[in-house]
Amino acid sequence: MSLDAGAHDLRPEGKISHCDGCIAECNYFCCDFDHDPNSGNFMVMYPSEYERAVAAGWDMSNIEIIGSDADGGLRFTTPHRLCCQIPSATNGETPALGLYKSFECRVYPLWPYLHLDEWRFRISERCPIHKRDLDLSDKVDEIRGEVSALIADPRVKRWFQYQRCAGKYKEYPTRYDMPREAVVLPPEITPSAVVYSVTVNGRLLRYGVRSANDEVIHPTLALTLSDQVLACIVADLADAEYIQVHRPVSTTLLARLREIALDVSAPTRRDAGAPIPIVRASQIVPAVGSSASYAGATPKLEIICDHVSHDGQRVSRYSSTAGRPTAEERLESVVLAYRTTEPSPLSTSRSPQGSSAPR
Q1: Distance CA 237, CA 232 (A)
Q2: Which of 237, 297, 298, 299 pairs as cysteine with 211 (C-beta 3.0–4.6 A)?
Q3: What is the pTM for the complete model shown?
């Protein structure tokens, strides 16, 4: 089987879209294990996984069972090192199900486990997907949905409570074990745009608005937008432990930003143990610019929301709590307000969960 990039992940089951961009770096680390049954190195199946696969008609000839695991799970190895390489079709014909791709292989580089009835995730430190900090939120949601159905079986539930998966894994950032610091740099205000650059533990994020066709944004409107975009940023990064704002802010604005951070992060602090956010500003002044609404003509505004890694790949959004507006949605609410009616800067609309969205 060819190892060329074009041959990678031809099976859709468990496919992670980022694999295509990382294949030159990965060297198939997820398959890099000694499959000698006597080596002590093995993979695992949750209780009933093997039986489910057999009943579904998968070819299990690549699975070598080497022992039992807790609650009826299995430990196995395989001589077929590249199960993700199995083509999904041959000569245009509908193929048989083919060799089985285990749950552990399908969810790599992630691994779910249960802690106090909360799904938490670990991620392999060897995978380039983790090294680039690429966005796996869709994959997390997919896995959470699958395993939430599986744990109707009490044996499977117990197994996921204790199985952590061996190897170089660390907590995936849906838990808050390490301090995370967001640094909001001074906004770049040009005649046609208001853009903030933000770093989160070294990642670069950009938030802002710009006028279509390079129309001029009035300076008073630019200052108002600057405050509103800052409120969107604080709301989006509210699960960070520290949010450092490097621009002058008024005492009123700082108090409002702190209120937004506490309000938005309340569900995550309650359900997942996120830290209490601390919002700090580099300079406190009696008044900064103008937060009064702008009554003049407003050009058509567009949003800027880019989260990228050092090599240009899109990275994980910092906050990913279900039901919370995304950064794009928050900024779009600012833009929409100016398209329709005069906005009320830094106002919020509360959701049933208690989160708030600056408009």
Answers
A1: 9
A2: 299
A3: 0.66
The pair of three-digit structure tokens given for residue 214, joined into one six-digit string? 């390079």
CA distances from 289 to 164, 242, 319, 338 (A): 52, 25, 29, 19
Q: Tokens 């380039």 map to which residue?
A: 128
Count of H-run helices and E-run strands, the chain: 9, 13
- Cα dihedral angle (96, 61, 4, 313), rounded to 10 degrees? 90
Helices (H), the chain: 19-26, 49-56, 103-107, 128-131, 137-150, 154-162, 219-236, 251-272, 327-340
In whole angstroms, give the CA distance from residue 316 to residue 300.
Answer: 29
Closest by CA position to 28, among listed 103, 105, 87, 139: 105
**How far is 71 from 131, CA to CA, in rounded Å?**
34
Beta carbons of 354 and 270 less than 8 angstroms apart: no
Tokens of 116: 């106090």
Buried/exposed 214-233: b ≥16 CB within 10 Å, e otherwise = eeebeeebbbbbbbbbbbbb
CA distance 175 to 273: 7
pLDDT digits (tens, 9 = 90+) for 148-171: 999 999 999 999 998 877 778 888
- 12 versus 232: which is more confidently predicted? 232
- Closest C-alpha among 182, 164, 174, 209 to residue 359: 209
Q: Token pair 């990228």 is at which residue?
A: 308
Q: How far apart are CA 181 and CA 101, in angstroms?
A: 39
